[in-house]
Amino acid sequence: MWSTRHLGQRVRVLVYHKRHYRAPPPLLEDLTQRGFIQDVTRPDAFENALATKVQTIYAGVDPTAKSLHIGHLIPLMCLLHFQIRGHRIIPLIGGATGRVGDPSGRLVERQLADVKQVEDNVVNLTSSIQAFFKRAYLYAGSHVSLDSNVKPEPVVRSNLDWHGSFTLLDFLQAVGVHARVNTMLNRESVRARLTSQQGLSFTEFTYQLLQAYDFYYLHKHFGCSIQVGGSDQWGNIVAGLELIGKMDPSHPNQGPSNASGVYGFTTPLLTTSTGEKFGKSAGNAVWLDSSLTSIFDFYQYFLKVTDTDVGKYLRMFTFMSIKEINELVQEHMKEPEKRRAQLRLAAEVTEMVHLKQGVKQAETMTKLMFGSDYLDLKASDVISSFKGDPRLVICSTKDITGIPVTKLAATYGLVSSNSVSRTLVASRGLYLNNQAIQDAQYKITPSNLLDNKFVILRAGKDKMLILLASN
C-alpha cells in the first residue's frame, strides 16, 4: 500500500499552454499532485507498467440514477487522465451489481432496486458517459497535446452482459471455490456492518465477489489491468486482484501483493471544508445533464465554492498545470473578494461538461442576474442563454411600451399582483435595466430597449424577467 510518494520522471507528454509546451510529471505523480491518489498497490511496478506499455483501466458507475452528477467527476477525471496519455479506458455500469447494492460505506442496507429502473438507468448513463468523454476530450485538447489515434468516446459496458447469464451453480464453482470466508469477513465494509444493529444480508455479503469477478472478466476478455475506485472500494479492488491471481493461469496462486500485471488504486473521499460530501447540496445532486441542472446553476455551484476548497477543485477538475493553479490561487488570495479562482474554476469545469458555448451562456446569465452594466448585452446572446427558460418572455412591442411597468411585472409573473409591484416601487425594489423604478405609472419607452429588442425587469436581488419584443 502506498500514498503520496515521490515517483521517478518517466512518462512525458507535450502540453500546450500560453504559447509554449511543457512536459508534465509522469501520470502517477501527476495524479498524486492533483489529489487523486489515496492507496495504490505496488506503486513502483505500477509506475513502470504505465511507462512501458499501454494499459487498460476501468472504473465502475452505480446505476442508482438516470444521469451523472458531479460526484462522478472524480473517477471520470481519473479515466480521462489515462485516456489522454494513450491508455485504454472502460467505464463500467453496474447493470447487475446495481440490483444487489454495495454495502461499502453504508451503515444500513440499500433498498433493492427496481429491475426496470436499473435497465433504464443503464441506457441513460451510457449516453451520459459517452457525451461526457466526447466533450471533456475537446476541453482537454485546449491544455494537452492529444494523440489523434485516441477515440474520444469510449465503449461503455454493463456487467449485466456477463453476470446475466451466469447461473448460481456456475458462479459458485468458478468463483466461490476461491473465496475464503475469513478473508471476506475481514473486509472493512463487512466488519462495519456486522457490528451494526441491522447486520449484513447474504446478498450484500456476496457483493465483493461479484465486483471481483468484474475485474477478472475485464482482465481476461479486454486486457484490463487497472481498477480505480473511491476509498471505500479498497476491499473490493483487493478482492479482484486476489481472484485474478487465483483464476488466471498467468498468475497462479498469487495474491494482490505480487500478482503480476494487475493493479488497483483508490481516490480519497472528497468533502468540502465544512465536511459535506462533494456534489451534495441540501440533499440535491448537481447533475451533468442540463435538463436536470441548468448550465447556469451548474456554473454557479463552482462559482460559489469556498476559498478553502477552490485550489483543491482546480487541481482535480481542470487540466490547468499545477504551477498555473498555484499562481492563480496566490493571486486570488490577495483580493479574494474578486473571486478570480472561482471564476476560472467555474469556466473550466463548465467548458468541460457543457463546452465553450455553455460557458458563454452561463456567463451571460450571471451578468444578467448579478451584473450592473447591461449596455453591451446583445439580444442574440440573451436568447441563446435563456432558451427554454421561463424567465424569457416574448411579447409585442406594443405591450412592452404601452403598459405600466408595475402591471407588466404582475402580468408576466415577476410578482404576484399589481399591488405587490406598487409596494416594490415604493420601497425602490422594482428595477428596469438595473435602475430602480420611482413612478408606479412609468411606461417603457423605445429608448429603454436594450439592443433595441428587450428589457430586463428585476424584483429585489434575485427575481428577474426578460421581455423580448416580437416585432
TrEMBL record:
SUPFAM superfamilies per the UniProt record, alphabetical: Alpha-L RNA-binding motif, Nucleotidylyl transferase
GO cellular component terms attached to this protein's record: cytosol; mitochondrion
Cross-referenced Pfam families: SYY_C-terminal, tRNA-synt_1b
UniProt domain Tyrosine--tRNA ligase SYY-like C-terminal: residue ranges: 405-464
EC number: 6.1.1.1
The entry's keywords: Aminoacyl-tRNA synthetase, ATP-binding, Ligase, Nucleotide-binding, Protein biosynthesis, RNA-binding
Gene Ontology annotations of biological process type: tyrosyl-tRNA aminoacylation
Gene3D superfamilies listed in its UniProt record: HUPs (3.40.50.620), RNA-binding S4 domain (3.10.290.10), Tyrosyl-Transfer RNA Synthetase (1.10.240.10)
InterPro entries associated with the record: aa-tRNA-synth_I_CS, aa-tRNA-synth_Ic, Rossmann-like_a/b/a_fold, S4_RNA-bd_sf, SYY-like_C, Tyr-tRNA-ligase, Tyr-tRNA-ligase_bac-type, Tyr-tRNA-ligase_bac_1
Reaction it catalyzes: tRNA(Tyr) + L-tyrosine + ATP = L-tyrosyl-tRNA(Tyr) + AMP + diphosphate + H(+)
UniProt-recorded Gene Ontology molecular function terms: ATP binding; RNA binding; tyrosine-tRNA ligase activity
Family assignment from sequence similarity: Belongs to the class-I aminoacyl-tRNA synthetase family.
Name of the molecule in the record: Tyrosine--tRNA ligase
Gene source species: Hebeloma cylindrosporum
